[in-house]
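Inverse folding, one chain.
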């Protein structure tokens, strides 16, 4: 029952004053001194704080906690802690305290505070705690009230406007929307290490955890809404207003001076002074407002909000009329309709609810259901629908269906999602927690209270983790706290090289260089680096000692020229005096000094010399030239200067003058004399080839020049030819063992194998007219046609292969021949001789004899499938086509076989003959023109000049001998030119003594023995 005005002042004392006057502390001390007591607080969070303090003083068995969402009630509690809304009105205790009584003027919650102020009393003592703004109304509504004022324990001063990044430590930034709070917290995290976040929508558990981050020093900044103004006891030195307008549930409005004073008063604790100011886009405060806040003199409240507590449950209309009654006392005003009244109105319009709410008990139950808070804040109609559903369950079944209740909980029982998602789930579960704490709404309320509390705690912890991950840099917060404690920071380096200070990762030690985290440059950066240097110094010295004793297998040279020791970069190659004598740059910080640095440099220098000396030993042997004299020593040095590959035409004169002894000495050093290059085959292997490319690039290019990474890999992959990339320096192709031949680059050892295939075909000449030429040779000799073995060897065909041949100096001749329907000549044997000495030969090597046809067939095995796709003109049996065009020994064409038709097919074959090699700057088109002069009737001589050392390497004496031996045959051809076969002159052939040791003598002896055997 409401107390009459005359009885209200009994046992009541109002303790009024600004923040930080110790009012709440006084109430706790007074309650502890009483046998029993009840205290009502404005926030669940603050109620939790006071509950903890009382438990520490009196024990858990003596203290009960009651809020809308939580009930902890021991068997026989002496003290009760509650939110103002949840205060048990049927308790009879010696002591009662109501905190923040000025909230009686709040539009939303004020009527509850007013009811408790006017009607709830302790038997021996009642304390009303709050701001001095409530004093006039309290004295009016409670005649004879005893008022005690308490001064602030510390000074509160205005510090003006500051940027967020320049706010002092232990500051709280106040904003009035979640978006603003998150944005400010993110900015502080990036610039100052992190911030705790306090919002009204957070669960008490989450808010407690966030406040604890600030209180224990993990972060120095707090970003909050005006919720911190409601009695939270924080160690805040400065309050910064990032906003001065708020939405009060009805409209956006400016904060009143009293509200700003309540929030600003949170700065300072006990006797420590505090300050307040503005930040962000808020204009500096007016002088009169500053003076008002600093002096704590605010306009008094004009009215308290009031709502009738004597309700009539005889009908829905009677209940609604009772709620609409106006107050009869001066200083009170009827509170605007709250969420509960709006829910009641919504239910009253529902026919089903009206049909159920027909008795006073059911109407009272409906009003109780309407008291469920709208934590979700989705929409009033949505909340009202939920309440009507609950009411239907309670009336029809006597309790809420537990299966349905479990399904509602399942929607919130998930911890995935972002901050907003988790906050929404917490709002949902708080609704069900409130429902579960109604003792008669569920069959097993204790069970469901535990379930809902567990879900809320789990969601709260997850939300706290998300907030911490997003807005707190753990490393910075821990280090800042240790620095404030003036403690020696502990640093360590893990085996993987991570540098930790106080267990927080601040960087990585790579070899002998420390790479700090980008986020390590903060206010604590200097102290952190100083602590890290101590650990780095000993670790770097230890690493230097280990490196100086490391084996060669612990080092590796990367493709970018970086030398790595056990995977860590320790040096980088740089250009030296020559390509084969590189220098190196030590990759180390200044901590590597003195003898330790010298040991590292000596070991790296030794490894580089050993590495180059091992892989490139053939070059070093050529440089030393042991066992070489005279001209051979000069050729060896030229090969050394060219990194193991010397084009033969560049040293034609020197090579021609080398005798067999000199050549043998060079061969012992690994040198091979090829048709096109004088080279060292051992250097064409992948490892030496890649190292040569790196060293050449350091001296003549850049470590990142085009092709440096790709070409050695292509060489190592076994490719015999590759397309030429115009972006890659042609000299680099040569370094890795390729020769640029038109549009493709061909491995130099493959070019020599190609020459070995071509040479016997050009030199071939039949000893017997009935013997068919081998594959690729032509009957009259002196040329060849492209075979499958050749294209398979180079891995290309068609125009690319033709361009390669032209670049090597061969000229193309196209000839039309008639192809009979069936072969006119059946080969009876394959020739094994290399031909007569009078025929112009293809380039020959000095190291190996010409391969046989079996060797050429063996070279075809690698790419038979590729050869199958080549043009028919390239793969035709050129020997048969050439033979069909040649006259017989009698000067007449061979007669057709019996039964053949006279029809024949005309085809064009391509015959290649030796010519001049392409010189630099000469276009392929010019070469092709010269190669086809014969087809246009040009009778000028072609091919290499006799007696001159060209690609083939023929000596002058050998050329002269061929010229002499072939002279009579050529004179005979000139005399008989244009004459019919029967009228040709036969000049007597001059006999010449045959050298019995020559291969021709052996051949003639073999032929003679075969003829005798036939006879």
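Residues assigned per position:
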């Amino acid at each position: 029952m409401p107390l009459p005005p005359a009885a209200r002042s009994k046992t009541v004392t109002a303790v009024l004053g600004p923040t930080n006057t110790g009012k709440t502390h006084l109430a706790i001390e007074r309650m502890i001194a009483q046998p029993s007591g009840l205290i009502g607080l404005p926030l669940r969070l603050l109620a939790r704080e006071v509950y903890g303090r009382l438990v520490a003083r009196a024990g858990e068995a003596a203290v009960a906690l009651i809020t809308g969402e939580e009930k902890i009630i021991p068997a026989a509690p002496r003290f009760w802690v509650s939110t103002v809304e949840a205060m048990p009105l049927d308790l009879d205790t010696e002591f009662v305290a109501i905190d923040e009584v000025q909230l009686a003027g709040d539009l939303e919650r004020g009527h509850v505070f007013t009811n408790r102020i006017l009607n709830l009393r302790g038997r021996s003592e009642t304390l009303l705690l709050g701001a001095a703004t409530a004093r006039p109304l309290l004295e009016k509504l409670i005649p004879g009230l005893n008022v005690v004022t308490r001064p602030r324990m510390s000074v509160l001063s205005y510090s003006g406007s500051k940027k967020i990044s320049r706010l002092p430590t232990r500051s709280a930034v106040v904003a009035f929307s979640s978006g603003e709070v998150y944005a400010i917290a993110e900015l502080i995290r990036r610039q100052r290490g992190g911030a705790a976040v306090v919002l009204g929508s957070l669960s008490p558990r989450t808010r407690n955890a966030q406040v604890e981050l600030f209180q224990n020093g993990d972060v120095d900044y707090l970003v909050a809404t005006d919720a911190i103004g409601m009695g939270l006891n924080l160690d805040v030195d400065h309050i910064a207003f990032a906003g001065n307008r708020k939405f009060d549930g009805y409209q956006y409005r400016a904060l009143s001076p009293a509200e700003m004073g309540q929030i600003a008063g949170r700065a300072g604790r006990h006797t420590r002074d505090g300050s307040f100011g503005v930040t962000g886009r808020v204009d500096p405060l007016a002088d009169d407002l500053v003076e008002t806040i600093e002096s704590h003199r605010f306009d008094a409240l004009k009215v308290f909000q009031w709502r009738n507590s004597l309700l009539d449950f005889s009908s829905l209309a009677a209940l609604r009329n009772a709620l609409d009654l106006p107050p009869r006392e001066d200083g009170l005003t009827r509170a605007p309709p709250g969420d509960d009244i709006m829910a009641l109105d919504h239910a009253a319009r529902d026919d089903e609810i009206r049909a159920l709410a027909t008795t006073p008990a059911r109407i009272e139950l409906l009003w109780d259901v309407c008291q469920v808070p709208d934590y979700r804040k989705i929409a009033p109609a949505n909340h009202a629908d939920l309440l009507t559903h609950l009411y239907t369950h309670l009336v029809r079944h006597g309790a809420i269906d537990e299966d349905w209740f479990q399904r509602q909980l399942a929607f919130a029982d998930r911890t995935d999602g972002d901050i907003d998602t988790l906050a929404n789930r917490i709002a949902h579960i708080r609704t069900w927690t409130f429902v579960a704490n109604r003792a008669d709404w569920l069959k097993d309320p204790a069970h469901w209270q535990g379930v809902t509390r567990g879900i809320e705690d789990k969601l709260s912890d997850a939300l706290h983790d998300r907030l911490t991950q997003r807005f707190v840099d753990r490393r910075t917060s821990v280090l800042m706290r240790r620095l404030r404690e003036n403690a020696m920071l502990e640093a360590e380096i893990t085996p993987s090289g991570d540098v930790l200070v106080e267990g927080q990762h601040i960087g990585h030690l790579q070899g002998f260089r420390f790479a700090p985290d980008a986020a390590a440059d903060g206010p604590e950066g200097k102290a952190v680096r100083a602590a890290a240097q101590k650990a780095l110094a000993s670790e770097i010295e230890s690493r230097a000692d280990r490196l100086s004793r490391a084996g060669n297998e612990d080092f590796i040279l990367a493709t970018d020229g970086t030398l790595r020791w056990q995977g860590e970069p320790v040096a980088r190659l740089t250009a030296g005096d020559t390509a084969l004598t590189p220098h190196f740059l030590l990759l180390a910080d200044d901590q590597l000094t003195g003898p330790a640095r010298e040991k590292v440099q000596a070991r790296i220098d030794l490894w580089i010399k050993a590495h180059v000396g091992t892989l490139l030993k053939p070059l070093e042997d050529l440089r030393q030239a042991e066992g070489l004299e005279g001209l051979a020593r000069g050729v060896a040095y030229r090969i050394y200067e060219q990194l193991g590959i010397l084009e033969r035409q560049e040293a034609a004169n020197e090579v021609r003058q080398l005798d067999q002894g000199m050549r043998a000495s060079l061969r012992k050093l690994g040198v091979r004399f090829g048709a096109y290059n004088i080279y060292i085959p051992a250097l064409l292997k992948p490892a030496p080839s890649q190292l040569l490319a790196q060293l050449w690039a350091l001296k003549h290019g850049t470590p990142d020049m085009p092709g440096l990474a790709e070409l050695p890999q292509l060489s190592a992959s076994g490719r015999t030819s590759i397309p030429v990339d115009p972006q890659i320096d042609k000299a680099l192709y040569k370094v890795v063992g390729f020769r640029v031949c038109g549009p493709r680059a061909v491995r130099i050892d493959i070019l020599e194998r190609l020459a070995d295939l071509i040479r016997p075909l050009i030199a071939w000449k039949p000893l017997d007219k009935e013997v068919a030429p081998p594959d690729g040779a032509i009957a009259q000799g002196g040329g060849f046609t492209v075979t499958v073995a050749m294209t398979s060897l180079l891995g290309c065909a068609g125009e690319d292969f033709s361009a390669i041949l032209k670049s090597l100096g061969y000229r193309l001749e196209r000839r039309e021949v008639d192809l009979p329907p069936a072969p006119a000549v059946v080969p009876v044997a394959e020739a094994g001789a290399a031909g007569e000495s009078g025929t112009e030969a293809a380039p020959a090597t000095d190291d190996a004899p010409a391969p046989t046809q079996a060797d050429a067939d063996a070279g075809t095995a690698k790419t038979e499938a590729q050869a199958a796709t080549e043009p028919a003109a390239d793969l035709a049996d050129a020997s048969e086509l050439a033979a069909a065009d040649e006259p017989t020994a009698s000067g007449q064409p061979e007669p057709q076989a019996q039964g053949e038709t006279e029809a024949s097919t005309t085809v064009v074959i391509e015959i290649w003959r030796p010519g001049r090699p392409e010189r630099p700057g000469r276009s392929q088109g010019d070469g092709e023109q010269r190669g086809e002069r014969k087809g246009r009737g040009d009778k000028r001589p072609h091919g290499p000049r006799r007696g001159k050392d060209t690609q083939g390497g023929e000596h002058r004496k050998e050329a002269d001998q061929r010229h002499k031996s072939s002279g009579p045959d050529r004179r005979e051809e000139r005399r008989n030119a244009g004459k019919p076969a029967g009228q040709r002159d036969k000049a007597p052939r001059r006999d010449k003594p045959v050298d019995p040791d020559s291969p021709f003598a052996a051949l003639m002896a073999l032929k003679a023995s075969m003829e005798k055997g036939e006879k």
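The CA atoms of residues 646 and 795 lie 24 Å apart. The first helix runs from residue 23 to 32.
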